[in-house]
TrEMBL record:
Organism name: Mobilicoccus pelagius NBRC 104925
Organism taxonomic ancestry: Bacteria, Bacillati, Actinomycetota, Actinomycetes, Micrococcales
Keyword entries, A-Z: Glyoxylate bypass, Magnesium, Metal-binding, NADP, Oxidoreductase, Tricarboxylic acid cycle
Name the record gives this protein: Isocitrate dehydrogenase [NADP]
Residues where substrate binds: S132, A133, V134, N135, P136, V137, L138, R139
One Pfam family recorded for the sequence: IDH
InterPro entries for this protein: Isocitrate_DH_NADP_mono (IPR004436)
Residues involved in D-threo-isocitrate binding: R145, R547
Family: Belongs to the monomeric-type IDH family.
Cofactor requirements of the protein: Mg(2+); Mn(2+)
Residues that coordinate or bind Mg(2+): D350, D548, D552
């Protein structure tokens, strides 16, 4: 029997800490089963170092693991467990660089405004690390995210609290009325393989090729669109006025980490419009010290340190005055005075909007109180869908997690589909003119008139991913009996082309055997919510952006968190990518851990991903032990949920580490109790006995560690030994696990 490898990714922040405790358990349990668990470092720090082999010593250099994993996804035997990693904004990237430099790695500073070819080259290397740089490389398949049945049943039995909604709630979502990506989109389906060129022609007749050599395949949908920034600015101005007159808290919701080229610029316009008096009066000074509004108010504060004390004080005064003339601004951390406009990475719409809905349309204000918000989601491709949820809640009240149906998602994601793959073809315009897309014969696909500062972008999706996505939707609808709800808007150019493909591929995929509807995102979500309220499930079948948004929205409403989701990516070439949960890397959890040695991270996503991975290995290889490992893990997870052994939220109770102990206990007991594999039974009988006997002692040791600060000697690249020691404080548990390894 060939050894099967599971790759376990090493990443950042809370889930990385959790791995120090959970991974030794996984290694111990799989030993001797024909399955090897190997780690692969794709953390932000690891990816930065991999860009600079030429500047690092032999003992410092690390290989480009992300490239290796990208290559692996093309093979049928790929089995990758992908934990959430940081998609770095520029401020996060700079912080990570600083930490690595302090640790003795001779890497260059990030050049914000490259001044020469050498700096341009450095910036290009860092660009490979910036933003959502990992997921698009590994996601060589479409997405199947859902709450495992046991998790949904647990949530119904133990419903979390959702804030009330009444019809007089004034919270609302505002989107632009025109000039946005939605309104300007043009879309064509390639009739043959070709190579495209994107050209800018200035009004003065000058020409610049923005990108050439863009290979497209027959059947590929190729979109071009533009965000008119003067329309965006006036949208911001209007909403600032509206929030003020309606006495609402103002908030902005974008995805600056993932949409790393367009959204930081849109965020920056928000900063500039909100603080327009400051930028009008002190524009030259701010420019002189390199303030970049796209990096937020936090960057402004750090850069004005370079000005003389008097100037700095005047700018700070102007900011204070500006707050007085503006509506109140939503806060990310009201205790620390961190606003919604401080850092682009704190504005992450998939996580922020569900919390607004959970909290009755409210966000935190500067006094530390919840207040109803005017949520700005500029682009109409997405904003109106959230507004429909607000409307539904105002009309029908909050949803009820004890009874509501489930909305899993099938998302079109493979091969860098749609907007999320558009970073290399997104451009901020230097001047007024026209952007034209032509094919290899010089024939024009479409053009757009643009103005200086506008954001033009091309997004694409190939035919094979669309076909596979339709098949996956049918598979899930057949498996569950729930209808497939295609979120597609015939008024949007891109969606209209996708609708044609869906209609063409559904019959051959077995569409006549399932119930399905095709509706605009607004109508589709309203339809799903109606069904939810009747306790009925619906499968949302969406493009890549709505995949991201809905796989946080419904889990947070249904389960209280997206951490408990099963997130499978069947790779187009037969392998499996198993993502853990649907949320991020929870920086807040690390802060709490450092302060009081308590890690709230819930590893249920890791448990479910591992279970799905064993199941995949059992189905695709002749390894019978994988099947036993998978089945026993599944029953252990069921027991774990029944006994409610997820981390609590407060000190003195079991945290992430305690939850790992209980999973190991139940898993060992299930392995000892099964009769399908005598070897495993024999191996796990004594282990189960030891873990059972020592329950009190292990709990005592784990809880005794809590309550004092922890030093990990680093945030982006913590000291391995310190982190492992901090995450494995029970000598008794370590003794049992290490004896098995
Ligand atoms: N797949 C990936 O690689 C992803 C990466 N990211 C990255 O993660 C970072 C942080 O993003 P952010 O949007 O703030 O999202 P996070 O999910 O990290 O934080 C939002 C909140 O989600 C809850 N949460 C998420 N996962 C868990 C878990 N396993 N256990 C318990 N609670 C959980 C917590 O909420 P509460 O306090 O309400 O319980 C948490 O504070 C960014 O760098 C972002 O780019 C984001 C999404 C996916
Ligand atoms: O890639 C990223 O930056 C975030 C991914 C994400 O939020 C998701 O897939 O749900
Ligand atoms: Mg997401």
């Amino acid at each position: 029997m060939a050894q099967q490898k599971i790759i376990w990714t090493r990443i950042d922040e809370a889930p990385a800490l959790a791995s120090y405790s959970f991974l030794p358990i996984v290694e111990a349990f799989t030993r001797g089963t024909g399955i090897d668990v190997e780690t692969s470092d794709i953390s932000l720090a690891g990816r930065i170092l991999a860009q600079f082999p030429d500047r690092l010593g032999d003992d410092q250099r690390i290989p480009d693991k992300l490239a290796e994993l990208g290559e692996l996804t093309q093979h049928a035997d790929a089995a990758i467990i992908k934990l959430p990693n940081i998609s770095a904004s520029v401020p996060q990237l700079k912080a990570a660089i600083k930490e690595l430099q302090e640790k003795g790695y001779d890497i260059p500073d990030y050049p914000e405004k490259p001044a020469n070819p050498e700096e341009e080259e450095i910036q290009a290397r860092y660009a490979r690390v910036l933003g959502s740089a990992v997921n698009p490389v590994l996601r060589e398949g479409n997405s199947d995210r859902r709450a495992p049945l046991s998790v949904k049943a647990f949530a119904k039995k133990n419903p979390h609290r959702l804030g009330e909604w009444t019809s007089d709630n004034k919270a609302r979502v505002a989107s632009m009325e025109g000039g946005d990506f939605y309104g300007n989109e043009k879309s064509v389906v390639a009739r043959a393989d070709s190579t495209l060129t994107i050209t800018f022609r200035g009004e003065d007749g000058s020409e610049k090729v923005l990108k050439d050599g863009l290979g497209v395949l027959e059947g590929e949908i190729v979109d071009g669109t533009v965000m008119d920034v003067s329309a965006l600015q006036s949208f911001y101005r209007d909403q600032i006025e509206a929030a003020k007159s309606e006495d609402l808290l103002l908030s902005l919701h974008l995805k600056a980490t993932m949409m790393k080229v367009s959204d930081p610029v849109m965020f920056g316009h928000g900063v500039k419009v909100f603080f327009s008096d400051v930028f009008d009066e002190f524009g030259d000074d701010l420019e002189a010290v390199g303030v970049n509004p796209n990096l937020g108010l936090g960057d402004l504060y750090s850069k004005i340190e370079k000005l003389d004390a008097d100037k700095k004080a005047r700018i700070e005064d102007a900011i204070t005055k500006q707050y007085e003339s503006r509506p109140r601004l939503a806060m990310v951390d009201s205790d620390k005075g961190i606003t919604n406009l401080h850092a682009p990475n704190d504005v992450i719409i998939d996580a922020s909007m569900p919390v607004v809905i959970r909290d009755s349309g409210q966000m935190w204000n500067a006094d530390g109180n919840l207040q109803q918000t005017l949520a700005m989601v500029p682009d109409r491709s997405y904003g109106p869908m959230y507004e429909a949820v607000f409307e539904d809640c105002k009309k029908n009240g909050a949803l009820d997690p004890a009874t509501m149906g489930s909305v899993p998602n099938v998302g079109l994601m493979a091969q860098k589909a749609e907007e999320y793959g558009s970073h290399p073809t997104t451009f901020v315009m230097d001047a007024d003119g026209t952007v034209t897309v032509t094919d290899q014969d010089g024939a024009k696909l479409y053009d757009h008139e643009v103005h200086q500062g506008d954001i033009w972008r091309m997004s694409r999706v190939r035919d094979i991913p669309v076909r596979n996505w339709v098949e996956l939707a049918v598979t899930r609808a057949k498996a569950t009996g729930a209808p497939a709800v295609f979120f597609l808007d015939e008024l949007r150019a891109h969606d209209a082309n996708v609708i044609e493909k869906v209609k063409a591929y559904l019959p051959e995929a077995g569409g006549d055997e399932i119930e399905y509807v095709i509706k605009s995102p607004v109508d589709a979500i309203t339809y799903c919510l109606e069904r939810c309220r009747r306790g009925e499930d619906s499968i949302s079948v969406t493009g890549n952006v709505l995949r991201d948004y809905l796989t946080d929205l419904f889990p947070i409403l249904e389960l209280g968190t997206s951490a408990k989701m099963l997130s499978v990516v069947p790779l187009l070439n037969g392998g499996g990518l198993f993502e853990t949960g649907a949320g991020g890397s929870a920086p807040k959890h690390v802060q709490q851990f450092l302060k009081e040695n308590y890690l709230r991270w819930d590893s249920l996503g890791e448990f479910s991903a591992l279970g799905a991975c064993f199941e995949h290995i059992a189905q695709t290889t002749d390894n019978a032990k994988a099947k036993v490992l998978g089945e026993t893990l599944d029953s252990a997870i069921g027991r774990f949920l029944d006994d409610n052994k997820s981390p609590a939220r407060k000190l003195g109770q079991i945290d992430n580490r305690g939850s790992h102990y209980y999973l190991a206990l139940y898993w060992a007991q299930a392995l000892a109790a099964q009769d399908d594999d005598a070897d495993l039974k024999k191996r796990f009988e004594p282990v189960a006995a030891q873990l059972t006997e020592n329950e009190q002692k292990i709990n005592d040791e784990l809880i005794a560690a809590q309550g004092k600060p922890v030093d990990l000697d680093g945030y982006y690249r913590p000291d391995e030994e310190k982190a492992a020691a901090a995450m494995r404080p029970s000598a008794t548990l370590n003794g049992i696990i290490d004896a098995m390894r």
